[in-house]
Amino acid sequence: MVTVANLLVGLVFIALGIMIKNLKWYRIISGYNNMTKEQKLKVNLEEFGQFISFCLYLIGGLFFLGALLSHLKIPNITPAMSLAIIALIIFMLNKFKEFDLGYRKPDGTLKTATKLIFATIIIFFIFAGFVYLSITSSPKIEIDADYFQIEDLYAVKIEASDINQITIEEKIPKRIMRLNGFNLAGSLKGHFELENTGIARLYVNVNNPPFIYIHTSEGLIILNQNDRESTEQLFRKLSGEF
Fold this sequence. Notes:
Layout: H1 2-21, H2 37-42, H3 45-71, H4 77-95, H5 112-136, E1 140-143, E2 147-151, E3 156-159, E4 163-169, E5 175-184, E6 187-194, E7 198-205, E8 211-216, E9 219-223, H6 228-241
Parallel strand pairs: 7-9
Antiparallel strand pairs: 1-2, 2-3, 4-8, 5-6, 6-7, 8-9
């Protein structure tokens, strides 16, 4: 699903680049319609349109690359893409010095509104990268003789006396409904209703089996790590402790 979304977003950016470069739709460039006739005469729209198109093609290419890396199950795609797009925004800001588009004051400094727009965009991508890492990273597990605890967005602490059985499986049941949780890039965290199982807590990446099943008096917990060896090692540690 994420791969398809990346492809669609990439196509949108490339289509916008074609509209500006080949169809001369300069009016879709932010700020162009607000420029005076005098400002429009000062700007080399042909050159500026080519620059904007280049940036749009580059962003579209980044999303295509993200789709490919997602298909290949390469981890931490979104943070890397966010950093690349932030770098591109900074490059665009620097390049804008060559064009008089009404984004700057007479002294050449950026207007406050322009700063706020670009700051908002940068903060958004930084936040998106942070959220992605929080959702897709393996849950941190604390194991004690009397309990084990999952330290995550959906933290839970289970007493040893409440654990009935711990098994390891190659598959997880089919998901019927997400009740309170996240589903992003194959990472499932939170409460889900599962087929023939009922409600369970999931802390898994479905692309990286196996999965540890922890049956407790409070319900089922399914978790894994980002690679098979780490998951099997965690299973042995949990089984030996409880």
